[in-house]
Specification:
By secondary structure, the chain is α+β, with helices and mostly antiparallel strands. The chain has a domain of about 45 residues. The protein is built from two helices and two strands. The chain has a two-stranded antiparallel sheet. The radius of gyration is 13 Å and the shape is globular. The N and C termini lie far apart (about 35 Å).
């Protein structure tokens, strides 16, 4: 691949994942991610917002309305 796209906004980000994987930054250096087993991680779970890891998102979905 010799090009890239930058998406901004929730709708554009989710629509972009329909066509290709995306590199994203997350706050993952914490116990919330270390102990993850399933579901959707939210700020209500105690997940910090300071970004410290880069990952590849390959899709998205809905889990119990979230």
């Amino acid at each position: 691949m010799n090009s890239y796209e930058q998406w901004q906004g929730r709708t554009a980000n989710l629509n972009g994942l329909y066509t290709q994987p995306a590199s994203v930054a997350v706050a993952a250096g914490n116990s919330v991610f270390r102990n993850y087993s399933s579901g959707v991680v939210t700020i209500n779970d105690g997940c910090p917002t300071e970004l410290d890891h880069a990952i590849v998102a390959v899709g998205w979905g809905v889990d119990q309305g979230t």
